[in-house]
Fold these 2 entries.
Entry 1:
Amino acid sequence: MYSIKMRASYQQNHISGGETMCEAENIAATIQRFFEKGFYHENGEVDFLNLKIEKITQPLTHLHSLVRHNEVKTNLEDIVAQSNVSSLALKKGLSYIFNDVLYTGAIILSAQSGKRLDTTGQRGVRVTNFSFPSIHSSELSERIKDAISIATCTTHFKGVYGELCVSDDVHYTTGYYATKQLGYHRIFNIKEAGTRHGGRIIFVDDNLNMSDYIHFLECTPKRIFA
Ligand code: WAQ
Ligand code: MG
């Protein structure tokens, strides 16, 4: 298997990224798909696009996909409160999402105090080396498959209470909140259309081993099955 990564930007500001793993015979189709995703993006013109192909040499870790819930009226405060994340932490998380910084990856916050615990600056932690082959032919969009895969990875580790996601794409207004126990809950109209506000916030225990967790998210090859 090969890891494929794409990153596109304009004047060094993040526009779009993508990552997956695939077999050799699917590399050409995957880089074509990622080229189109990054180069023709609703967030605007791109002046830099990087595609990276790397052979996977480590064994795959298998993760069971989170269950996807579709209720129209999921209330963010309620579901976050059910997952051991304080309202202060949620408030701080939302302030990272609804600011003008364009992060490439996820921000990791204390679920208790809301203090930022990772030290990756404006880059954030990017979940990479994952694939979701068992639903490739399903009716779900690439965006939703990607989102369920990322949430399955971020919430898998012990000491993680939940992940909140808002797309930074100008016209996509559905986000989600996910936990290992409660599953993947879509949240409609989480932002107003027309802004680049967005991001991913992972709420964790203060005692979580940060370098093990980041290594798991960025480096361990992860295969998600339904
Ligand atoms: N790892 C960590 N953070 C990421 C990753 C990744 N692989 N990919 C994106 N991010 C961060 C980054 O800060 C982006 O700005 C932000 O998340 C949003 O990414 O209808 O489309 O790809 O059920 O714009 C969720 C709802 C859609 C899907 C999320 O996010 C549904 C989405 P985007
Ligand atoms: Mg985006």
Entry 2:
Amino acid sequence: MKPLVVANWKMNPPTITKAKELFALVKKELRNNNRVEVVICPPLPYLSVIKGHSQNIKLGAQNCFWEKTGAYTGGVSPLMLKDLGCQYVIVGHSETRINFGETDEMINKKIRTIIEVKLKPILCIGETERERKEGKTNLVITRGIEKALAGIQFEVVDLNIAYEPVWAIGTGNLCNPQMAREARLLIKEKMEKLFGFAAAKDIRILYGGSVDGENAKSFIEEAGFEGLLVGGASLNPLKFGAIVNSISLN
Ligand code: PGA
């Protein structure tokens, strides 16, 4: 299984022209990459522009609604995302939880539909600074996973989990690889309990939070993650290229 590197462009860049330019530069930086699976998650309006230009770069969405069609003003369904060429959907990012009031129950419903239409969820889990200080990190991770995946049976476990300590997102406050390693092991154990040892081995666990070209390798080699979720640095083609290339050389 290849490592997975996901670029979360968040609500950037501001225009379609700039999105096309960014994508062209990213593609150029990644032209020699064949050892890492790369997924770009642009804002929704740019998906159709980037579709068809992607070649060995896959497409993902940053969010979705949980119904396939219907009277849900403002909603975008997993079915529509699939039709646009997406293969992955980020669910439960701390920014969608905070800014759009996304709850564990909503996340569970989204994951069910994403799986039903045969897209691959990237479930984000992570503790806030306060929760870590209060010693609740393990509880937040295990409860978050239990609630997000409640009642979900996998025929084939096509699931990715991103451990993203909220205090490390967009802050430059790096989670040290040892701390991240402990969180990864906890997630791994939880997955084995929920889905069995054989199925859990195919679940990729990603690290996210202030990843850059300097630290990317340590999360793969020291902390044992199977991939990375990259925000800020994914908007800089050189930095993003450096991240992908730093882990593809092994
Ligand atoms: P960051 O964002 O790399 O800018 O910290 C990560 C994320 O939000 O997924």
